[in-house]
Amino acid sequence: MSNDTCLKMSPAAPAAGHAATTFQIVSTVFFTFLCYLTIGLPLAVLPSFVHVDLAYSSVIAGLAISVQYLATLLSRPYAGRTADAWGPKRTVLCGLVSCGASGLLVAAAGTAASLPWLSLTLLVGSRFALGFGESWVSTGAIMWGIGQVGPSHTARVISWNGIATYGALALGAPLGVALNSGFGLEALGAAIAAAGVAGLLLARTKRPTPVVHGERLAFSAVLGRVMPFGLGLALGSIGFGSISTFITLYYASHQWQNAALALTAFGLCFMGVRLAFGSSIGRFGGYRVAVVSFAVEALGLTLLWLAPSALSALLAAALAGAGFSLVFPSLGVAAVNLVPAQNRGAALGAYSVFLDVALGVTGPVAGLIVSHFGYAEVYLCAAGAALAAVVLTLWMARRA
């Protein structure tokens, strides 16, 4: 037997192939990391800035933050179509430009703080730009990764993309608070713009993937196919929307410190579960993993509702992050595989629309709940939504 043959049969060869595939995936979803860093940096700062510094109500604060999710919702279908028709690389480049522009608007809002109406207008504009950038970068990066390593690795690409997403949020939230405390909102906006520019320069150097040609399904047809999975995703996403939008004000209402650490704990547990249990979807099936994930998330949100201290709230947020971790990939792989290859970008966009709707609605609705009942009850309602997702997933599993 030749040495070449021995090398081919060695177990090191599959390991090397696995490592190379992982590197390709990570180097692509790094653009998602930079995109969500631009989202995480202002995440724990802007609600308090609107509510305290600009003296607007909690409802207005929720609406101002949720504008980003509305923009993501409106642009998501076009992001999927663009990724299918233009290629993922161009989609990512356009999104990174928009992320950088949002930082400039945040800096301008800080400069105009003495005119609350102007500052709020600039912030709303920054949230629109950031929402557009989010949809195009996240959709494009996933499709770019799948194009690099092949559709058989779709679950791995989606999982690593989520790790990049919530890793960036976990890092960005406390970093944004530190920048704002030390240097002001103008410096925070400059950091957001710098992250967008860095991503743009790096993305230009990476090779594109070929566009898959073929008949394009109407977006409405794609949306109909993925709707049951998307509804489950939406119900599970309400908890994340509630934590990301109101956790700082929830802490402030109890006079607790370090609210940004709750976002960090959420993100770290999200990443840890993705890394440790990401393969469980292939072993146990997406439905079982989704049911367990929703149940754990509901428990975390319930404990957050009942939290008597900042530490217990942090641990509850961490548990909610662990539960939410595998929701997107456990239902998303099946959703994307419902359509031909040339429509996968549209399917991913349609599936993600339900996440955007949930996050967009959560802000203002939670603001109304706060105005009538209080901050804690927001998390009780979110826990109820996660339990409803358990029921829906069990129904889908029975149908399947």
From TrEMBL:
Keywords attached to this entry: Cell inner membrane, Cell membrane, Membrane, Transmembrane, Transmembrane helix, Transport
Gene3D superfamilies on file: MFS general substrate transporter like domains
Regions crossing the membrane: 21-42, 54-71, 92-118, 124-146, 158-177, 183-205, 226-252, 258-277, 289-307, 313-336, 348-370, 376-397
GO MF entries: transmembrane transporter activity
Subcellular location: Cell inner membrane; Cell membrane
Domain Major facilitator superfamily (MFS) profile: 220-400
Record-linked SUPFAM superfamilies: MFS general substrate transporter (SSF103473)
One cellular-component annotation, GO: plasma membrane
Membrane topology: Multi-pass membrane protein
InterPro entries: MFS, MFS_dom, MFS_trans_sf, MFS_Transporters, MFS_YhhS-like
Family: Belongs to the major facilitator superfamily. YhhS family.
Protein name: Uncharacterized MFS-type transporter PTE30175_03722
Native source organism of the sequence: Pandoraea terrae
